[in-house]
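Support request, please re-run this one:
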Amino acid sequence: MNLASAFALAVAQNRDKTAIFWGDDEYSYQRLDQQTSWLADQLKHQHQVRPGERVALWLRNRPEFVVALFAVLRVGAVVVPINNFLKAEEVAYILQDAGVRVLITESDLGAAAHTLASRIPGLELLRVEGVPSTIPDQAPHEEPLPPRQASDLAFIIYTSGTTGKPKGAMLTHGNLMHNVASCRQVLETVQLDGFVVLLPMFHSFMLCVGILLPLTTGCSILLIKSLHPLKSVIEEIMRGRGTILPAIPQFFRTMAATHQVPTHLPLRLCISGAAPLPVETLRMFGRKFPFPLVEGYGLSEASPVVSINPIHGKAIPGSIGLPVPGVEVTVQDETGQILPPREVGELCVRGGNVMLGYWNQPTETDRALREGWLLTGDIGYQDEEGYFYITDRKKDMLLVNGINVYPREIEEIIYEFPGVREAAVIGRPDHRRGEQPVAYVTAEDGIPLDTVALTHFLRQRLADFKVPRQIEILSALPRNASGKILKTALRDLPGVPD
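Re-run finished. Output below.
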């Protein structure tokens, strides 16, 4: 069994069922399968794509993204999903690094795609607008799936590249099928579920939880056309009877804070991922809605889901929950020693979901993998009940007078101040103390923020050395396409004088 054969089995069992809701249009499993076969035929016979070859997808959220993904897998090739917000120069780096010859794209990205074709000799473009909306049963000619083993490469997912050049995490069929099985069990997925997909489909979170899980399980996808206005998103969820909503903390805060969203929705579960979920956002959500919002944790190198708070039983605010089935998580020191509960160290992951390594980067692979453990770069601890907590990214930790300071601790307190919408804390060099925390904050619409009052609020709740030396009010915080706040961009802002 591989991802292509798992999808083929789901098609055989659910031919007339709706696989994708797309506005007023619906794609049955049979229609999706026919389009996938047609595009696979184009890849194999028109573009001579062979098993193991890398094929890139540079597309916005649309049904053809799913068609292209499974078409590449159907010919035994490797999917390289690319952030559709990247510029041509950034895309060119990924295409050349992965050795991509065929790029599946769309007309809206046409000018940039032509730029790429002129810069990269031999690059072939295949636009999804050429996929027929309906295909006669006799065409294309059905061909047997190429044999692909669990150990064969299925995806190369390039990390967000918040620092330096992005690295391609190599994920096998087995990695992703392992993670799909884990998520299916822990989310208690049934065929009646409808997964709401509003995050970018190129992101590993959506690839696994928003596409591969539902479409190898016989579920439906509610593919949201636009996030604006929010009222339209809610109407689509109501119309398509969406039951599971994976999104980012910012979206859930908006749901909880606005009167546009009714409290009774068909949703049975919301999952927050891709960025830390502030405790205050979780509290706001819980006061308004009857269905749970649970925080999960993952990273592309782990296919990506590592842990999640339980749907039933004890969910702990501020925790990333318990490891998903079949995955081990430990907290280790710099030497690889496993630390006892409450001791802070680096979160390390082991299981069938862990990547092979980074494409063409053996040195980086050796840094990330140690004796079977994936070193996540996230700092945290485990409590006595087995729940895990992230205090910060390893690279984001500050040293103030030689004392470790974790920005997330400060951010959580800032979120409790009335009128704060978002917060990010970074470190600035300080010739006396090594580093000093600086906070960047955005306000809720129409609410003025008093930085003096906020500083006083923080001084009552934090040790003096943790209180930000300066608080800057911004109209918005810089983010990447997956919703993560770009602290590297904040560090590039003019520094605070000593």
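Residues 397-491 form a domain with the GMP Synthetase; Chain A, domain 3 fold (CATH 3.30.300.30). The chain is about 30% helix and 25% strand.
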